[in-house]
Amino acid sequence: MKTIAVIGGGITGITTAYALARRGFAVTLFEKHRYAAMETSFANGGQLSASNAEVWNHWSTLIKGLKWMLKSDAPLLVNPKPSWHKLSWFAEFIGSMPHYRQNTIETARLAIAAREHLFAWAEEEGIDFDLKKAGILHIYRNKAGFDHAGKVSELLALGGLPRRAVTPDEMRAIEPTLAGQYYGGYYTECDSTGDIHLFTNGLAAAAVRLGVECRYGQDVKGVATNGKQASVVLGTPGGDETLEFDGLVVCAGTASRALAVQLGDRVNIYPVKGYSITVNLNDEASRAAAPTVSLLDDETKLVTSRLGDHRLRVAGTAEFNGYNRDIRADRIRPLVDWVAECFPGVSTQSVVPWAGLRPMMPNMMPKVGRGSSPCVFYNTGHGHLGWTLSAITADMIGDVVMQSLGSQATPVPSRPQATPA
Fold first, then answer.
1. Percent of the chain with pLDDT over 90
2. Region 52-71: what's the mean pLDDT?
């Protein structure tokens, strides 16, 4: 039985370990925290959103970024302090603009395929993660935003995703608690929401039942490969420990870039900070006034998810500020104010703030496939759609590892064919 190391215990690492174990590999997962899903997979927006598949490689994104650069509470904030990493990333981001249409369509197609995998795994393993299949409603305050959404809908349709335009009256029928005046919206009935932290930990337990060794609290000091095997160096109280494996899959989020360098590869991930708040709905009035349908406000770049009866998650914004994990009050305040504006009956007396670093590739497409060494693989760089795409990219990398290394395979559910990036 071939041995595989997976580095990273977030959503991509856990789904990868699970997919590999189902194929008959002996998997060891390394995670620096004491538990799974303690960083970017801890408190995201909750949306499983094929309808949010539009990549950001569009001139409008750059224009907004320049306009908002000196506005501390802007939805998109770029620290003007230059760095080679940031400059190279944005240069590649601009270079990927000709692929905006193609990549948006491909992302939608992957998101649809991922949905069926994730639901099937959750049902098979008995994972309760506050799944709500009530669709996602995109809301627009002006004609320009609504018209752009119409063009995006055409691309999503080419990827296989149906969504429909709705009038303000229809929006109120879909989500009666939403306050304010709107030009119109788009509703995707087949999208859903859920708690990424609950799901990841539930799948981690399922992976252990399949034989995965999850080594939490591990300090991975280095990785290397000789072309035939890969090694992982752990820092321990008694000194460094080196472990050898037949293969290595890097699923380490924003840390993947540095690990790739050690393995002779370039994976130009940039950490894009996002914020969220979890509003505890502690009284009946707040529970009644909170939305049950998930929303995406394209103007403010905020999303909502109702997680069970007693929690409302609001998340969004994008901050290009290096590996800074600070939770800034001036970035959290707009999320709280948005709740007060759109859902005035919800009490924001009990709010838990959070920030996480999304691992983003310049073309907004995940890095899924083999490295320069035949025993090194990557499943990382999912950006703001890690939760949405995780199940399908795990299956994709499982197939790639299988083709490269072989193993005694356990049958897996059939799925649409996908080409690794």
1. 89
2. 85
Residue recorded with tokens 């795990």: 394
Res 409: pLDDT? 47
- Closest-CA residue to 127 (of 24, 14, 212, 33): 14
pLDDT surpassing 90 at residue 199:
yes
Phi-psi region of 266 (alpha: psi -120 to 50; beta: other; left: phi over 0): beta
- Give 242's contacts (C-beta < 8 A, 6+ positions apart): 231, 232, 233, 234
Assessment of whether the complete model's pTM goes beyond 0.85: yes
Q: Where along the chain do its domains lie?
A: 3-405
* pLDDT on residue 260: 98
Distance of CA 323 to the CA centre of its chain: 17
Question: Lowest-pLDDT range, 129-143, 163-177, 397-411?
Answer: 397-411
> What distance in Å separates the CA atoms of residue 184 and residue 165, rounded to the nearest whole number?
7
Spatial contact of 132 and 46, defined as CB atoms under 8 Å apart:
no
Mean pLDDT over 160-170 rounds to 97
Q: Do the Cβ atoms of 280 and 352 come closer than 8 Å? A: yes
**Whether 184 contacts 171, CB under 8 Å:** yes
Query: Residue 411: its pLDDT value, please?
Result: 47
Q: State whether residue 31 is helix, strand or coil.
A: strand
Say if residues 233 and 240 touch (Cβ distance below 8 Å).
Answer: yes
Q: By three-state DSSP, how is residue 91 classified?
A: helix
Q: Could you say which of 3.40.50.150, 3.30.300.10, 3.50.50.60, 3.40.190.10 is the CATH number of the domain covering 3-405?
A: 3.50.50.60
Count the Cβ atoms, other than its own, within 10 Å of residue 180. Answer: 13
Buried b / exposed e across 62-79, counting CB within 10 Å, b at 16+?
bebbeeeeeeeebbbbbe
Residue 407's pLDDT is 56
Distance CA 17, CA 129 (A): 19
